[in-house]
Design goal:
Layout lengths: L2 H24 L2 H13 L1 H19 L6 H15 L4 H18 L2 H17 L3 H9 L8 H22 L2 H19 L7 H13 L3 H12 L6 H17 L3 H17 L7 H10 L4 H18 L2 H51 L2 H62 L3 H9 L3 H19 L3 H6 L18 H10 L5 H8 L3 H14 L6 H6 L5
């Protein structure tokens, strides 16, 4: 590296450090986090306002059935309301735009509808489908506004694909293609517009020119004409630069403001809160990180895009584990102080015994204290384990219930649609396709995964209670079998045979027979179920 480049790099670092100090001095993350939590409480009302706008547009749509142009405009407004709010609805209205534009036989509207479909496909992480949609567009005779959006969508697709692949060879190719599309779009942008400023800055970031990218994006943020959504995008992008330069406090403040803007604009498809939770988890803000990652998961589930749910699901267990660890540290500190107070009490008692010569009484008191401490330790261990199990299974069943509600909503929507069109045969087919056996197998599979996350050594310790010839041998695809699942439920506290029978869909006699048969095969039948209850969680 030349001396000129070294000096340039040093100046950039000093500039970023100085700006970072100004940000940190202006306001601490703790105070900004309080603002964010206050806005989070307003989230249901803000979402309700957005839903009210959507309901008004839907009501207006019923009066435009004979006016295709009017119907097109309202469907476009509904798409714009849904595109960062709810994936499946935005996808539906993108197809409605295609249908109406084909009926109008308007090339510009047909192309515009394909762009809208491409945007929502990209938001869901469906790169192939996005390229398929964009590849059918012919831009030669299209208006400049449609061409500009076409170029920007292509640029974003290639940039996202480059970030997703993280491959030394293909990433360079994708970034080069994206840069060319940005250049084509910028030629059609007003130089005072948001798109011109933002994508100029984004191109600088991708090219590695962070110094000028900071200047460009900070100038854009200072603009008073940005919408909440535009501000959130810009602040979130700028935060990535400060993360790269190891200035997390500045990045946190930017992401807090971006998250506030996302909530105010009822944007569900956003990464600001996810990135913020990851940064806070590395600092002494574990509880706040957990609160935000749960909010990010709620948004991801509500929006419905698979890619975002996968991203949040990958981080949620990490932050949840950190939160549990933090709680354990607090409990350990409390235990330390309790122990310290106990020791001081014992010292005082010892001196009192020396003074009053009551050695026998003190020995009895010492014995009681030790027994009390043993009981206390045992109680704390049980509480920790119960808390861990409760938290894991509450999250598990909320996830399962959410999935089933989504499935019921889709079935309800399909049946309603077919009732409206009196397609009763299709309703029969739809109902016939509901495979309860498969759903129950999936439920058991999810239970097995969640249980083995808490008790990863369960199968090994279970087998240790039997002679070799009676140990459980699972098939390659199995996590637990029926024998293991019965005693897994018993380990979780479900000891009532009637409840076990209802959960596993067996008769009461079958459950009794299973338990008796398995217990009698163990090395010590009289101690078998007590040994099961003593298997430790992680």
């Amino acid at each position: 590296m030349s001396s000129l480049n070294i000096m340039k790099h040093l100046v950039l670092n000093l500039t970023l450090l100085f700006i970072g100090c100004l940000y940190c001095a202006a306001q601490s993350p703790a105070r900004d986090l309080e603002k964010l939590k206050l806005v989070l409480k307003e989230k249901p009302q803000l979402d309700a306002q957005k839903q009210a706008r959507i309901d008004f547009l839907k009501a207006s749509l019923t009066h435009q059935e004979s006016d295709l142009k009017g119907e097109y405009l309202i469907c476009l407004k509904l798409y714009n309301e849904y595109k960062s709010f709810q994936y499946d609805k935005a996808f539906y209205y993108a197809h409605q735009l295609q249908r109406i534009s084909n009926q109008l036989k308007d090339p510009a509207k047909i192309a515009y509808a394909k762009l809208k479909l491409g945007f929502i496909l990209l938001s869901s992480g469906m790169f192939k489908e996005t390229f398929d949609s964009l590849s059918t567009l012919k831009t030669k005779h299209l208006p400049d506004s449609v061409k500009r959006e076409y170029y920007l969508l292509n640029a974003r697709t290639y940039y996202d694909l480059a970030d997703f692949d993280q491959d030394d060879y293909y990433t360079k190719i994708y970034k080069t293609k994206a840069s060319l599309y940005v250049d084509s779009a910028l030629k059609l942008c007003d130089i005072h517009s948001f798109d011109y400023a933002y994508y100029s800055g984004l191109k600088l970031i991708k090219a590695g020119d962070l110094e000028h990218a900071v200047i460009k994006l900070k100038s854009l943020i200072r603009s008073k004409q940005l919408s909440e959504h535009e501000y959130a995008i810009t602040a979130s992008t700028l935060s990535d630069i400060y993360i790269q330069y190891h200035q997390p406090d500045v990045a946190i403040r930017l992401l807090i403001n971006a998250s506030i803007a996302d909530i105010k604009s009822a944007t569900k498809e956003a990464a600001a809160m996810l990135n913020l939770a990851q940064l806070l988890n590395k600092k002494p803000y574990t509880e706040d990180a957990y609160l935000l990652i749960r909010a990010a998961m709620d948004d991801a589930v509500y929006y419905g895009a698979r890619q975002r749910k996968v991203q949040v699901s990958a981080i949620l267990p990490v932050i949840a584990s950190a939160r549990i660890l933090h709680e354990q540290e607090q409990k350990q500190m409390l235990f330390f102080y309790c122990t310290l107070l106990t020791i001081l009490s014992i010292i005082i008692i010892v001196f009192a015994i020396i003074v009053y010569k009551q050695l026998k009484r003190i020995k009895a008191a010492d014995k009681l204290v030790l027994e009390a401490n043993a009981r206390l330790r045992n109680t704390i261990e049980k509480l920790n384990e119960a808390e861990k199990i409760k938290e894991e299974y509450i999250g598990y069943y909320l996830h399962i219930i959410s999935d089933y509600l989504n499935k019921l909503e889709k079935i309800k929507s399909s049946i309603t649609q077919r009732l409206t069109t009196k397609k009763f045969d299709e309703i029969k087919v739809l109902v016939g396709n509901i495979n309860l056996k498969k759903e129950r197998e999936e439920l058991f599979s999810n239970f097995d995964k969640a249980f083995l996350q808490l008790f990863p050594n369960f199968v090994t310790e279970f087998n240790a209670l039997f002679p070799v010839e009676y140990q459980v041998k699972l098939l390659p695809h199995q996590l637990l079998n029926t024998d293991l699942r019965i005693f897994a439920l018993i380990r979780l506290g479900v000891n009532d045979p009637d409840k076990l029978a209802r959960i596993l869909e067996y008769s009461l006699n079958t459950i009794y027979n299973y338990r008796t048969r398995i217990k009698n095969k163990s090395s010590h039948p009289d101690k078998f179920e007590a040994a099961i209850l003593n298997i430790k969680a992680i």
